[in-house]
Amino acid sequence: MADKFDVVIIGAGAAGLMCAAEAGKRGRSVLVVDHGKKPGRKILISGGGRCNFTNYDVDANNYVCRNPHFVKSALSQYTQWDFIAMIAKHDIAYEEREHGQLFCEDSAKDIVNMLLAECDSPTVEQRYRCDVHDIRKTDSGFSLTLNTDTVECESLVVATGGLSMPKLGATPFGYQIAEQFGLKMVSTTAGLVPFTLHKEEKEAFAELSGIAFPAVVEAEDGTTFKENLLFTHRGLSGPVILQISSYWTPGQKVTIDLLPDLELAETLTTMREKHPNQSLKNSLSRLLPKRLIEVLIARGDIHDKPLKQFNPKEITAMATYFHQWQIAPNGTEGYRTAEVTLGGVDTDELSSKTMEAKKVPGLFFAGEVMDVSGWLGGYNFQWAWSSGYVAGQNA
């Protein structure tokens, strides 16, 4: 005899647990299954173990999706304020950091424990180290095999996440389920991920590893972010690079304003008037890390000489160089270090109001498995809460 449930949720991450809690509150009999040993593994390591669980300022513009309107319904049905209210109900202390980002004061475990407490209902069951296979559509819903047991359900929710951080058990299983039922996919790639550089630039800039400073980075589509830029042994990272990586495609350049808070032409002109014999190297080293300036001189990108030897045209050219520094990444560090997966189940296949597949009644998706990726700053977790809530209200 097969076990029967109203709802089976595949994936015990942020979206899956949220969905289970909400479906359970509706009195639905719910089974959450996961191939891992414990729930919420990505939550636990996020934000340096503090979990950037949402943001004070959440908007559809904070998301990357082929259909930019898709996220609006779920984000309005369950807002950041709703999640903050749940945090308050469970007496979880949190703090605001820059750009409205909210983190646990103590530990990301608080979020996992809260979600498990919300799932603590007689109608909600969880099973771990569970391999799911042989999913079939039936007259009354779905049938699937869990390890060796057969389970039947009315509604099946796929909350399996993306491909980022494979060490945490990321797999393409959710995509395979979508394809099995004929749903279109948007090709996937790593997002919120550091850039690697071509050999020559990698070798030149490797000695700058660990240096960070504010910069504005622009993708070829015109998207810009202002955050810290970090040099690494392999290339470029820091929040501004992670953000822009979601808007970059291989072969494209990015344009970096290395001095976004001043007008370099004016600054150099003033310096030349006050200290005409001061070298360009020493002048720029007051504005940017000295080691960076030394590398740029060694590469022949800029030429060191006393400021008095620069004419206005050369100063303008120097300013353009630093305000529009262009670099063509070799690639990214890939899913290994990516915080999200771009692409996934095509949202045109889903109802934005319910998260149900339009042509497969009873099949729902929640979280990162679909073609919705948030910016850095708590937006991906908010999508997990919002889409999980909506799926839980309808599954």
Automatic annotation (TrEMBL):
Pfam families in the record: HI0933_like, HI0933_like_1st
Origin: domain of life: Bacteria
Protein's name according to its UniProt entry: NAD(FAD)-utilizing dehydrogenase
Domain RsdA/BaiN/AoA(So)-like insert: from-to ranges: 190-340
Alphabetic keyword roster: FAD, Flavoprotein
Keyword Transmembrane helix annotated: no
Co-factor requirement: FAD
All residue ranges annotated as the RsdA/BaiN/AoA(So)-like Rossmann fold-like domain in the record: 6-394
